[in-house]
Specification:
254 residues, mainly alpha, 2 strands, 12 helices
Length: 254
């Protein structure tokens, strides 16, 4: 039985045996997506992430329509990721204190950049916050949970209230609206400039995670660092990118 025939048979009969076969067949997709999301949820058990993802996979299997011409893996990926993110949001897994720390770190980067006329170094941030480098790295690890949906959040709101998601600035846009395309191109330029100012390892982390689609564990192997260090690099990189976006928004609204 081909995959197409398997889907048609399942939609016709709702056979639980076929359903189980489909779940087992795409379980590796759940593990892969859970592994990627783990970069922003180091305090959440990996098996719990898989469990949330399985719920999304089952939902995708039930709602998928093979007659629409979509590839199931693409359709399911969104459902799986969405299910995991929704569950994490419901759990409110990022304590208020961590959100406060993340905001404080962003504000410090902005303050020092205004002071020096260039991006601040980690040493300068540590000095400003009166903390050690070890404490700085711990803060990055603590706030990594605030970056899990960093590229799924609204990064820029145009004058005509066009919501632009961070991920849309990386992926090719299907929109034919010239104003939306121009605004997204502007944000791409902002992000490109911000990324160019990141440290080498931060740039590599962003590239490996968002462009090469590697998991936390895989990035650690490529960079020859621990998974905790990958979380720190990712958190600091996203913090710096958010700072760049916040500054540009402030410039636009002056």
């Amino acid at each position: 039985m081909t995959e197409e025939e398997q889907w048609r048979e399942y939609k016709r009969t709702n056979d639980p045996k076929i359903r189980e076969e489909l779940i087992l067949k795409y379980a590796s997709l759940v593990k892969y997506i859970a592994g990627r999301i783990a970069i922003g949820a180091p305090n959440i058990d990996y098996n719990d992430l898989i469990g949330y993802g399985i719920i999304g996979l089952i939902d995708a299997i039930e709602k998928f329509d093979p007659n629409q011409g979509f590839v199931f893996q693409t359709y399911a990926s969104k459902r799986i990721r969405g299910a995991i993110i929704d569950e994490l949001r419901a759990l409110d897994w990022v304590p208020r204190l961590m959100r406060k720390k993340a905001k404080e770190l962003e504000d410090t980067y902005i303050k020092l950049e205004k002071k020096y006329g260039r991006p601040a170094t980690e040493e300068e941030v540590c000095e400003e916050l009166e903390i050690t480098k070890e404490e700085f790295n711990q803060i990055l690890l603590d706030i990594s949970g605030t970056t899990i949906i960093s590229l799924d959040e609204v990064w820029y709101l145009g004058e005509d209230n066009y919501e632009i998601l961070g991920i849309d600035t990386i992926q090719a846009s299907q929109s034919q609206n010239p104003e939306v395309i121009i605004e997204k191109e502007e944000v791409k330029d902002i992000l490109a400039g911000a990324i160019s100012r990141l440290s080498e390892k931060e740039r590599e982390t962003i590239a490996l995670y968002y462009y090469e689609d590697l998991t936390l564990k895989e990035i650690g192997k490529v960079l020859n660092v621990t998974e905790s260090r990958v979380c720190q690099l990712h958190a600091n990189a996203i913090t710096k990118l958010k700072v760049s976006i916040r500054k540009k928004i402030a410039d636009f609204t002056k």
